[in-house]
């Protein structure tokens, strides 16, 4: 049985223009110890998917309009805030892009880590402290015992992200959701944090969902990849297949539009046009207005995810005829 | 030999930080944001400037245009020393040098129409607003890929990529020779980023522009640059043609920076295979002694803690500031 199952998830937001689906018909599953990468650009719905799983979207304006989320056999959609509490932490932990806004500036990092543990386990103070030091040590904060009484502003961006990871790990979650965990960090620090996430997966066997706009981060971490565009999943495959045989024109464009670090290219292959705003998405295939292969029929209906190979699906009417 | 379009010699910028406090008793400390930087940019070339946050690359870009005043050093533009030019003379020089910022939204006045935004530099430089100016603006918008109907609209009506096109149109309207692109494509989604990179390259070819391209994305810098300068904590540690910087980097920081770029395919994963630069960037307020990179360098030697290495030429056009590559005395 899968650890996490998301089925036909649709999350809607009430806006000035009426109700808009930020995420539509998203389905995927995740096994214990697996790393799933969700890649997409602004407005793709990748973060809303994560927040929907965690039950962290304020309602109103957001609501789960359809579908369900099952974690370790338990249905999460429809649970009350109180029922969700014991699942967040020991079940599913989450880290965000900007650690400074997720940490409380007026409490020491030690207090914040200990509070997280205390919320789920009753331990004497000395043991709480020891566990917090062990967690900081585990995520690579040097002289952890001395840093415990530091405040978030006394740490660098990379160290703050390590603290966030320590807090998420303090409850030994079976699933860690990392939403753009390295986007705000410098490239040398990003490499350190990605190494750390992989080490932790190997050591604790936890599953990870890593959400990013960066195909490089996907290449470094993911076992399997979900590509999202304008609120929908448009392709899913094992990581190597996504890079070697992308079947959706958008996935192909996403891989081609970034310059290479080793090869010279005279000109970048850009995707024309702009990303549609959630309230102004085109009819039919949402990528059609930017797609070089679009035909008039592409704007008639929304293409469903279709299985092209075992464990490889894409939502494109022309996927079969376009692939060599 | 042609002379450089822009040249900096021993450029420095110090900021006083802190100070004040209780009854003003806390002394201010000096932050050396840019420390003894010399570089040159030839006409028509693109010099990439890379480094991590806090390395001083944006400050250097602003210094070169004298948008902020240097604490020491010289700047020459087209052979003319502009370091101490007065306001009026500097205004004339500035027609030839413009800047495009990272956040096009923050850099565009939300209450002005696109026409007024793009025409503003012309008006400031004494061109009367009228039909001729309107035509010029329309032609420039067309050149950067915006329709004429964009003229009456306001910045918030545009997407990030389109707003960056507006910023580029404003920078180009005076027909400058040098453009400083300060993280000009960093905030854009990758599918749109490629459009803007292509646009910048087309405009360079057509208008003979010279770029200082400041960015932290090493792949984009490699793509657009002819030469690349690498900065660390206020200093240039390596400059060379891009093939040398990416193919045969000499400074351990440059090597580590390139090794930290995520792989392009899952089979090339870097974990456990590439040397990582450990730790964080130290504070520029109290930078490490000697070579500023010595606290993170995998090859650190005793001399590195004592003496700062000079930026020396190791091969034609390739300069490095590292004790490992300095020719041993005697």
Automatic annotation (TrEMBL), chain B:
Compartments reported by the entry: Cell inner membrane
InterPro entries, per database record: AAA+_ATPase, ABC_transp_ATP-bind, ABC_transporter-like_ATP-bd, ABC_transporter-like_CS, Oligopep_ABC_C, P-loop_NTPase
GO molecular function, one term: ATP binding
Stored SMART domains: AAA
Annotated ABC transporter domain residues: 6-258
Main location class: membrane
Keywords, sorted A to Z: ATP-binding, Nucleotide-binding, Transport
CDD domains cross-referenced by the UniProt entry: ABC_NikE_OppD_transporters (cd03257)
Tree of life domain: Bacteria
Pfam families named among the record's database cross-references: ABC_tran (PF00005), oligo_HPY (PF08352)
Metal-binding recorded as keyword: no
Keyword Mitochondrion included in the entry's annotation: no
PROSITE patterns: ABC_TRANSPORTER_1, ABC_TRANSPORTER_2
Protein's membrane topology: Peripheral membrane protein
Entries under NCBIfam families matching the protein: oligo_HPY
Family affiliation: Belongs to the ABC transporter superfamily.
Protein name: ATP-binding cassette domain-containing protein
Organism: Plastoroseomonas hellenica
């Amino acid at each position: 049985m899968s650890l996490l199952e998301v089925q036909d998830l649709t999350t809607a937001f009430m806006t000035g223009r009426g109700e808009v689906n930020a995420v539509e018909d998203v389905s995927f599953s995740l096994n214990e110890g697996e790393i799933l990468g969700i890649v997409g650009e602004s407005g793709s719905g990748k973060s809303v998917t994560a927040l929907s799983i965690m039950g962290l979207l304020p309602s109103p304006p957001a609501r789960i309009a359809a579908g369900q989320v099952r974690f370790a056999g338990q249905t999460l959609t429809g649970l009350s805030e109180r029922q969700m509490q014991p699942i967040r932490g020991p079940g599913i932990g989450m880290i965000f892009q900007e650690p400074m806004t997720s940490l409380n500036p007026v409490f020491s990092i030690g207090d914040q880590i200990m509070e997280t543990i205390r919320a789920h386990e009753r331990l004497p103070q000395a043991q709480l402290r020891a566990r917090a030091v062990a967690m900081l040590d585990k995520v690579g904060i040097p002289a952890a015992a001395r840093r415990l009484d530091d405040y978030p502003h006394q740490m660098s961006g990379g160290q703050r992200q390590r603290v966030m990871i320590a807090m998420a790990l303090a409850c030994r979650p079976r699933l860690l959701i990392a939403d753009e965990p390295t986007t705000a960090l410098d490239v040398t620090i990003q490499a350190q944090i990605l190494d750390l996430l992989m080490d932790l997966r190997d050591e604790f066997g936890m599953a990870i969902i890593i959400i990013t706009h960066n195909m490089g981060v996907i290449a470094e971490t993911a076992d399997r990849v979900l590509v999202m565009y304008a609120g929908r999943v448009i392709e899913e495959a094992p990581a190597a297949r996504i890079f070697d045989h992308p079947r959706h024109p958008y996935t192909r464009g996403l891989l081609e539009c970034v310059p290479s670090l080793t090869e010279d290219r005279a000109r970048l292959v850009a995707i024309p046009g702009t990303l549609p705003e959630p309230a102004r998405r085109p009819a039919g295939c949402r990528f059609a207005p930017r797609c070089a292969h679009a035909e008039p029929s592409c704007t008639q209906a929304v293409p469903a995810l279709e299985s092209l190979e075992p464990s490889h699906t894409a939502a494109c009417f022309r996927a079969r005829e376009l692939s060599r | 030999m042609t002379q450089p379009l822009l040249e900096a010699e021993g450029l420095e910028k110090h900021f006083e930080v802190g100070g004040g406090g209780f009854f003003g008793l806390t002394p201010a400390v000096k932050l050396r944001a840019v420390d003894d930087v010399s570089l040159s940019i030839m006409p028509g070339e693109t010099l990439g400037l890379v480094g991590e946050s806090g390395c001083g690359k944006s400050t250097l870009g602003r210094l070169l245009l004298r948008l902020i005043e240097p604490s020491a050093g010289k700047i020459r533009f087209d052979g003319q020393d502009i370091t101490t030019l007065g306001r009026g003379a500097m205004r004339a020089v500035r027609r030839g040098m413009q800047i495009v910022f990272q956040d096009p939204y923050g850099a565009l006045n939300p209450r002005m129409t696109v026409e007024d935004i793009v025409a503003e530099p012309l008006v400031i430089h004494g061109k009367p607003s009228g039909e001729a100016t309107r035509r010029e603006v329309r032609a420039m918008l067309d050149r950067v890929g915006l329709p004429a109907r964009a003229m009456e609209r306001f910045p918030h009506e545009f997407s990030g990529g389109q707003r960056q096109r507006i910023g580029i149109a404003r920078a180009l309207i005076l027909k400058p020779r040098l453009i400083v692109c300060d993280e000009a494509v960093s905030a854009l989604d990758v599918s749109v980023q490629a459009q803007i990179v292509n646009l910048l390259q087309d405009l360079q070819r057509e208008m003979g522009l010279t770029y200082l391209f400041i960015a932290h994305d090493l792949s984009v810098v490699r793509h657009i640059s002819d030469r690349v300068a690498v900065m660390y904590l206020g200093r240039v540690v390596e400059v060379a043609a891009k093939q040398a910087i990416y193919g045969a980097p000499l400074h351990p920081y440059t090597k580590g920076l390139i090794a930290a770029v995520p792989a392009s395919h899952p089979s090339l994963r870097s974990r456990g295979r590439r040397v990582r630069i450990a730790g964080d960037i130290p504070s520029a307020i109290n930078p490490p002694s000697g070579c500023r990179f010595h606290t993170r360098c995998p090859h650190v030697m005793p001399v590195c803690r004592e003496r700062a290495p000079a930026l020396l030429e190791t091969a034609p056009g390739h300069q490095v500031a590292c004790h490992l590559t300095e020719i041993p005395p005697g």
